[in-house]
Structure formats: structure tokens, C-alpha cells
TrEMBL record, chain A:
It comes from Tessaracoccus antarcticus. Keywords: DNA-binding, Phosphoprotein, Transcription, Transcription regulation, Two-component regulatory system. This is DNA-binding response regulator. It holds the Pfam family Response_reg. The lineage of its organism: Bacteria, Bacillati, Actinomycetota, Actinomycetes, Propionibacteriales. One of its GO terms (molecular function) is transcription cis-regulatory region binding. InterPro entries: CheY-like_superfamily (IPR011006), Sig_transdc_resp-reg_receiver (IPR001789), WalR-like (IPR039420). One of its GO terms (biological process) is regulation of DNA-templated transcription. GO terms for cellular component: cytosol; protein-DNA complex. Residues 6-122 form the Response regulatory domain. The modification 4-aspartylphosphate is found at D55.
TrEMBL record, chain B:
InterPro entries: BphY/WalK/GraS-like, HAMP_dom, HATPase_C_sf, HATPase_dom, His_kinase_dom, HisK_dim/P_dom, HisK_dim/P_sf, Sig_transdc_His_kin-like_C. This is Sensor-like histidine kinase SenX3. Keywords: ATP-binding, Kinase, Membrane, Nucleotide-binding, Phosphoprotein, Transferase, Transmembrane, Transmembrane helix, Two-component regulatory system. The lineage of its organism: Bacteria, Bacillati, Actinomycetota, Actinomycetes, Propionibacteriales. The keyword Transferase applies. Gene3D superfamilies: 1.10.287.130, Histidine kinase-like ATPase, C-terminal domain. Its EC number is 2.7.13.3. It catalyses: ATP + protein L-histidine = ADP + protein N-phospho-L-histidine. It comes from Tessaracoccus antarcticus. PANTHER family: SENSOR HISTIDINE KINASE GLRK (PTHR42878:SF7), TWO-COMPONENT HISTIDINE KINASE (PTHR42878). It holds the Pfam family HATPase_c.
Amino acid sequence: MTDPLRVLVAEDDPDIRDVVAFKLGRAGFDVTAVEDGTRAAHELFGGSYAVAILDVMMPGLSGLDVLASYRASVPEGRTRILLLTARARDVDVDSGFAAGADDYVIKPFLPRELVSRVTALAGRA
Amino acid sequence: MITARPLSRSLKQISFGLAALIIVIAAVSLTAIFLQRKELDQFRQEVGRSVDAVSSLSLKLADAQNALMLAASTYDPWLPRIADDAMARVRESIPDLELVAEVTGSSVATTDAAQRLTAWLVASDNVLRADMTARNVASIEYPLAREALIEVTKELEDTRTERRMEHDAIILGGAVAIGAATLAALLLVALMARHYVRRLTRPLTQLRKMVDARVAGDLAIRARTDQGFSEAVRLAVAINELSDFNNGLRATHEATIHSHLLAERVAAHLAVTGSTDGWGRALEALAEGLHLNAVAVLPEGDPSHSALHITPGDQSWLPDPLPIPADAGHAQDSPVAAVALDLGGQPMGTLLVYREGGRWSDSDAEALELSSHHLAASLALESVMEAARALDEDKTRFLATTSHELRTPLTAVVAWLSLLQEGDLGELSADQHHAMGVVERNIARLRDLIEDLLTVNQLDSGQARAVRTHMDMAALACRVVESLTPMADTAGVQLRCQATPCDNNLTVQGDPGQIERAITNITQNALKFTGRDGRVDLNIRCVDGDVTLTCTDTGIGIPADDLPHVLERFRRAGNAHGLPGTGLGLSIVDSIMEAHGGTFLLDSTQGVGTTVVLTLPTQLREPSLVRQ
């Protein structure tokens, strides 16, 4: 039995953060949940996460900012990044991939679907 | 001041002079002839009288000689008295010879004749005194006297002939003089005519050449005013005045054209609305066209009254304080001129122009006036557009924020709901499941509404053409059909996708997300309004270089009254109530088609079904071109 894979969840809305953390925990991941971009960056740069789920729209640093600075500062970093986007515009998705995202999930989403995407990303890690 | 002589006066004087000359010559000649004739007649009478006198003397002499000879031969006492009487008659007539002498010009012949007669008379007197020797002398003197008289007669004849010849010569001379004078006059007239015609035509020819040159474009050419008759000079002066007037007119006309062209150029630059470049170029054009050092536009209603556009950047020339539009106007020599910019009486701002030294002409004023209309209109348009842009931005931002803000709670609801439904939080009873189903269905409707609103907003704000890639319409449509098959199965509707291959592989250009959305919308609509055991068919094929997608259903159709309104937002057909929907679906499809240069066609019969045809060009054209 190996250690559970670590997943970082960065989401400012506590209700969404809780449900995501709950569902991922149920799926057997070791979940760390934070409520803003600054903490997300701190965690991401410090810890060895298999997957990080970043909400694009967060107060302070946005998910895209965190993603961009992570990819720029830690080019050898192996953490897979999944963006949660409100899909305000298609360009959000494009700029997300351009910044180095591995996948994205559009809100509103089903927790089940999110878990399966995270599992897939973790499997590729 | 014209110093040249007029041709008309010269010609008049010449004609008068010539006529007078001819009349004088003719009068003198005719008078001479007339006098000559009269003198000749008188002379002829005198000669006649002289001839009579000489012949009478000759007869008297013959009578006296006969009487003398008779008296000498016969001693009749009466005979000497008779002879003496006859001799007295001869003696009395001798003075007649003086008259004859006058006629002949005291010729030798008359003197001689008088002496002969006197000699005869002396001899005859002696005969009568009975001097017998005298008889011989008288006999000798008599023929001599006769011959002398004959000689006088001859001389008279000669004189008459001479005088006639003289007279004829005088008459001939008169006639020749008249002819010569007339000929000379005619020659003079011809020469003068030639001279005057030359003097007249030379300046006229020059004037014609000058006018020709002017017509050919030499506006500076002037007619010479120092040659020819006063008429030609006056004509030249008039033509020069006309040329000056025309040059002035031309200059005014050119200035007007220049003003209009300048205003048009300003307008053309301003037509690039919403661009500061347009303003800059318009003001630069104005500055260049009017040789201005700088231009500024002060918008009305700006509390700081700061210049909106200035060319060039140096603002030191701007008057302080800045004039308010009511003061607009320009003094002739003030370097700064202000023109009020107003549109239909509504003040829009002030145009300030700066030129060192001022010297504003009427044409400058006209150009500024014409340009000011365009500038005012542009200011008005700009403020309206600015307001509209701000409003549109507000709306877009509002909708984006709203949809995001709506999505966040929705996301939490959906997520937690699924935990409940999936039994993550404990098993649910059948009633609880049903309740969750109702909640889920209504959340889905809410989500659709938010998505539709967001899409409409995106399409309205012009983000629709952001993505342009090539895509296979058939593949796209069949993927939509595949994803909607569960929905069709639930509704008991047969859903099919069929593509007819063609040369371009049914490829279109555009935003795949939006095209997919359009196909999804019409297919979902078809499924929604088609009852159990109905059919929905999607056919994709090429038509005239375009790709068309036809979606045919056997649903409830749309009432004829509602057909014209299917594309209106939030409008739903009368028979659609009770079925879920936002009333935005078809208007979104139409907007997407328009953004891609395609067309949207819908035909429906209530109770029979609906057919929707989407047509997209294989190469994306500009929507504006397609719509024309």
C-alpha cells in the first residue's frame, strides 16, 4: 500500500472547496484545501502535489497567475494542474493552456466528473 | 489715358480731305474750261467781225479804185465827187484795221495794210488833183493794198486756228487734270486703306494670340496697350480688365474649391471614428491646408476646458484664459482664431487655430467654417459613441459578473446535490430521489438560462469571431447527435445524422464551439418539440460551395402567427408553454450564423413539423460583406 497521492485544491468559495475536498478525500486522495491564490502558490511551490486544482477567479492571485509563476519558477515541477473556470470566455481556456494547464473543468461541474479527471491526471503523473 | 488717335476719326478726315480735293480739282478744271469756251466764242465773233471789216474794206477799196479810174478817164464833173466819196468811205474804214490788229495781236500785216491803203489814198488824192502821174502810182498801190488786206484776212484765219488749237489744248489739259487727280486720290485711298488695315489688324492679331494663350492656360499674359488705334488700345485695356476680373474670379473659385476639398479631407480623416489617429490626421490636414502653426479642439462641457486634440504638442500659444465658444470669432491680425463648433445650435466645443501674424482671409474663414461642421459632428458622434461604448461595456461587465456570480452558487448547489443523489451522504428514499430530480432539473434550466445569457452577451460584444479554425461540419453534427442520443432515447424520438460527402469534405471555417452550440440548440429544440415515436434528422451536404445543415423534425411545429417572431429574444411560440426553454436558443443560432457569414432559415407547419437550414460558407467571409 503506497501513500495516497497529494492533491491541492485552491478555491475561494468554501461550499465548493468543501465538496471538492470531500469527494476527492472519498476517492482516496490526500487533499489540502486553501482559499486564495497566495496560499495556493505557497503550497504548490513547497509541497510535492500530484495534482493541483486551481480556481481561475480568486481574490488576490488568480489561478492563472499561480499557474504561470509555478511553470516559470519551477520548470522541472511535476505537479499536474487542473483549472476550474467559470468559462466567462473561451479565451480563458486558451490562455489557461497557454500558461501550462493540463486540463480544465467548467463550472458548474459534477464532483464525480472532477474526480475522474483528477484520477486520470494523477495516473499520468 | 489713351493718347492714340482713333481710326474712325482718321478715316473720316481722310475721306473728307480726299472728297474736297477731288471737288476742288474738278471745279477749277471745269471753270477753266468754261471760261476758255466763253473767251473762244467772243474771239470767234471778233474774228468774224474783223473778217467782215476787212472784206468790207476790200470792197470799198475796189469801188473807190473803179470810181477813181473812171474819173481819171472821163471828164465827167460828177465822177471825181463820186470817187472822193468812195475814197472817204475807205478812209473812214481804215480805223477798223485797228480792231483787227487787236484781234491778231497788232500784227505786221494790219500795219502794212493800213500803210498800203494810206499810200493808195495819197496817190488817189493826187489823181483827183489831176496829177496824171499819180494814176500809175494809184494803179501800182491798189493791188498792193488788196494783197495786204488779203494778207490780213489770212492772218485772221491763222489766228483763229491758232486760238482753237490753244483752246483744245486747255480743255484736254483740264480733263487730264481731273482724271489724274481722281486716279491720284484713288491710289492714295488704296495706300491709306492698306496702311490703316495693317495698323488695325496687327493689334487685333496680337489680341487674338493673347486670348489664345490665355485659353491655353497662360493666365499671366497681358495685351499690349501701347500700339494701334485707340479702338485697339481700348479693346486691349478691356481684355486686360476682363482677364484681371477672370483671374480674380478664378482665384476665388480656387479658394472655394480648396476650402471644400480641405473640409472634405478633414471629414474623411474624422470618418475613422473612435480613433485618435483620425482626429490627429484631420487637424494636421487642416493645419497643412491653411498653413497653421497649430490647431486645438476644446470640447464643450469639459470643466477643465483642456484641449482635446492639439497639433503640434506645444501649447504655449493657447490663450489664457481659453476663450469660451460664445466669444468665438477671429480678428484679422490676431494670431489665434476661435471658431465655435456647434451642431444644430448645440455647442460642441471650440476650434482654436494659431498662425503667426494672423492675416485671416475670407477663404480661410470659409475653410474653417466648413471644417468646423465636420469637427462638431465628429465631436457629437464621439460623445455619443463614448456613451454607447461605456453603456455596452457596463452591460458586458454586468452580464459577465452576474453570470460568474450566479455560477458560483450554482456550482456549489450542483456539486452538493450530486453528492446527495450519488449516496455519498447516505442512501435516499424514493420520494427524496424524486425531489432531488426536480431540483436537478430546475437547476439545469437555470444553468441553461445563464449559459444562454452569457452566449448572447459574447455574441453582442463582438467576441464571436475571435476563433477561426477549419472544422468538419459532418463530424461536428454527428458528435452533437451522439451526445444528445440519451435525451432522444428518453423522449422516444429517433435521432439521426447523415452526411453526403463532397469535394471539400464539408469543411467550414469559424469557431467550433459556437458552431457546435448552434447545432446543439436546433437539435435540442427539435427533440424538445417532437413527441414520442417522432423523428429528428440532420443532413449535411454541399450546396453551391456552401455547406448546409438541415434539421427536420416531425414535431408540433410553430403556429403561423409566431413564425415571424421566432428570432426575437425571450419570445416563445404559443404552443411551447409548459416545455423548458429560455426563448434565447434560436436568436443565439441566428447570431452565430451571422457572425460566421452564414444564414439561418426556418420553416414550420403547426402539427406537421419544423425544418431548420443552417448554411455556412466554406471560406469565412466578412459578415458585413455577406449581409449586403
